[in-house]
Specification:
single chain, alpha/beta, TIM Barrel, ten-stranded parallel beta sheet, two-stranded antiparallel ribbon, 14 helices, globular
């Protein structure tokens, strides 16, 4: 039986190389590509359009955009446009972003649950081609619609997935979203609690857990040399543990380790700072929260996430040979 598998691209590769990777992933039976958007580096929408244009069957998801920086009208018209380019292949992955970055660009992430619920409710209605008026705490719209004059006027099939980390957001995801993008840098057993929360949320809207798709980001460093694969991941984790403390918390990393790394890394972190701090990330942690090592070791680790509720691994190649990673998990 074929396993569902997807590719995750961030900003570690040239954009044009990314186009070649997604075409190769499609040819090897991958189901989807997800494009990151978190730091102030590469936005998700431009690469998504490029990936959609050079593929025929591959689903293309945002992994994940935030619900604060795009006005709801723009958000809906953006995903309408992507769906025009690749009908029934686009997925809107959206998350609540993180501090200090949001704060540093002037966004006050107050009441993240309410803000997310309003965004998803209105986005779904607009993509359903409804005329919408709504007066909420965060969104106020008056008689707006996606006023398509030329082209398809029927409701669009763009599923909405929430990139949820916290417990309350996870439960709400089960209630209001089509799927969840489970986070990376967590041990496989982290999913057990996430599953319980998703079940509780799904129950509120009369659904079962099977109605909630559960793809999961997994840091994946594959090399025929085990030590080389581990060292590649160590550099990434050094940066992530310092800059995204919610991930450190979810993966059970000691805050002492996080604070030591933070004391060495600036923002944005330089290669020199990462090299200086990376020895603080122990190999046991890398093996616990990522799929790093030889092809066989990586496959075995990814299987643990699937056995713990992940429906489709979204593999994040942190460096090295991306073709080797795709070949390792090829379905055809």
């Amino acid at each position: 039986m074929k396993q569902r598998v997807a590719l995750y691209l961030q900003d570690a590769h040239e954009l044009r190389d990314g186009l070649e990777y997604v075409k190769y992933a499609e040819s090897r039976g991958f189901e989807a590509v997800w494009q990151a958007e978190s730091r102030l580096v590469r936005d998700a929408i431009v690469p998504m359009a490029a990936y959609a244009a050079v593929t025929e069957k591959l689903k293309v998801g945002s992994g994940v955009i935030n619900n604060w920086t795009r006005n709801i009208g723009l958000l809906a018209s953006t995903f309408l446009t992507l769906d025009d380019l690749a009908p029934d292949r686009i997925i809107c992955g959206i998350g609540a972003w993180w501090d200090p970055l949001a704060k540093n660009v002037g966004i006050d992430r107050k009441k993240p649950l309410t803000a997310m619920k309003e965004t998803i409710t209105i986005l779904k209605r607009l993509l359903n081609m409804e005329r919408v008026s709504f007066e909420g705490e965060f969104i106020q719209v008056y008689g707006i619609e996606l006023d398509v004059v030329h082209g398809r006027k029927e409701p669009r099939n763009v599923p909405v997935y929430i990139g949820a980390t916290g417990d309350n957001m996870m439960e709400m995801t089960g209630e209001i979203a089509d799927g969840v993008v489970l986070n990376y840098c967590v041990p496989p057993e982290y999913n057990n609690k996430a599953m319980d929360l998703l079940i509780a949320g799904a129950k509120k809207s009369g659904k079962t857990i099977d109605a909630i798709d559960r793809p999961q980001l997994i840091v994946c460093s594959v090399d025929n040399d085990h030590d080389k694969a581990i060292d590649t991941t160590r550099e990434l984790l050094t940066q992530y543990l310092a800059q995204q403390p919610h991930i450190a918390k979810a993966s059970g990393v000691s805050m002492d380790v996080v604070e030591k790394i933070q004391s060495i890394l600036g923002w944005p972190a330089t290669h020199e700072q990462i090299s200086k701090a990376k020895h603080l990330v122990p190999e046991e942690l890398i093996i616990k929260i990522t799929a790093s090592g030889t092809p066989e070791e990586a496959k075995k680790k990814v299987a643990e996430y699937v056995n713990n509720g992940c429906t489709c691994p979204i593999l994040y190649p942190v460096g090295g040979d991306v073709h080797l990673l795709i070949d390792t998990f090829a379905q055809k």
